[in-house]
Amino acid sequence: MYPKVKPALARAWRDLQTVQFGVTPAHAVVLGPVDTATGALLDRIDGTRGMELLRAEASGMGLPDGRADAVVRWLAGAGLLDDATAGGPRAQAVRGQPGTAERLEPDLGSLSLVHREPGGGLRGIAARRATKVRVRGSGRVGTVIAAVLAGAGVGRVEVLDGGRVEPADVAPGGLGPEAVGRMRAEAAAGAVRESAPGRTPRAGEEGGEPGLALVVVAPRDGLDAWAPDPGLACDWVAAGVPHLYAGVLEGTGLVGPLVLPGTTACAGCMERERVDRDPAWPRMLVQWRSSHRRRPNAACDLGLSTAVAGLAAAHALSFLDGQVPASAGARWEAALPALHWERSPVPTHPECPCGAPGEP
After folding, report:
1. Before 337, cis peptide (omega within 30)?
2. Is pTM beyond 0.85 here?
3. At what angle do helices 67-77 and 51-60 cross, to 10 degrees?
4. What is the CB neighbour count within 10 angstroms for residue 138?
């Protein structure tokens, strides 16, 4: 074991005997009392020394026998300890690719705050590399989401879309001007490859071909994210594949809901609930869909689309990392010009055959 204090958390002394790890309240930890010699020992728990050397150095600093082990256990119990050798075989494979590990170092630091056990951050990176995600849509939102997921270490990111890239599809972080005129799926696959850190694992290389962990529905037509088609999602619901909606419609950005089949509301629930509230909804929806097919380049502000893509990718990564993000069973919306993000719960519907439990 080569223990190290997690470098992701900045350290500051509150007083002569109390040390705080971390600045922001979400992850900050305060420990005390800490004497001067123990504080000096903390500086040496940096991943370059094994326990035998730490014990020897602690003894040379005048600390009693067993203090080094006690401090390491103390840090581990507070979620502040990492281990430069932990994580298992998949983590070792990441360590064996220096370029990949260096690119993902900020992500590793972030994951170390969520996975508090020693080596948890690198295990999280390794798990991402063995994950498969499908993004439906290659416009200003979809391709950026796909590129962010690949850049954050997701090993297999597919993008599905038809037709050819148009000038309006170009966005920083997504498709570049050189992609105009190319087949959308091909161009988006290139953006994913360029964003990925290091070589993407080949099928069977890291434990076999993974199943589909998540579908991100980010259509170029934001109406299809605002009012998703239950027919498109029925196979995902039947197969138990989680899916997340994201898009921009008429200057309004939306992220969610994240549908967890059998647990949270699906597209069918959303449609039934909307019809219950507004009987004219089906009639208007047919008209809107018809007009959007004739007007492909709808309002999609670049700043807003980039924000939506970033937030959707963050929610997707949170889910892939084993958490339940705030988009599960809810939709986040922000409209120009004020851009206040607001959360709206998406209720299940008792008449929907998706199997999700109704409201208590």
Report:
1. yes
2. yes
3. 120
4. 32
The full set of domains in the chain, from first to last, is 3-83 (3.90.930), 88-126 (no CATH), 130-345 (3.40.50.720)
- Helices and strands (H and E) in the chain: how many: 14, 12
The total number of residues shown for the chain amounts to: 360
Average pLDDT, 10 consecutive residues per value, the chain (360 residues): 90 94 94 92 92 94 93 93 77 74 88 88 90 96 97 96 94 95 96 86 59 95 92 94 96 97 96 95 91 69 96 98 96 96 95 79
CA dist., res. 119 & res. 110, Å (int): 13
Residue 347: exposed, middle, or buried by beta-carbon count in 10 A (0-12, 13-18, 19+)? middle
In which element (H, E) is residue 38 found? helix 36-44
Nearest to 1 by CA among 40, 43, 55, 38: 55
CB 169 within 8 Å of CB 143: yes
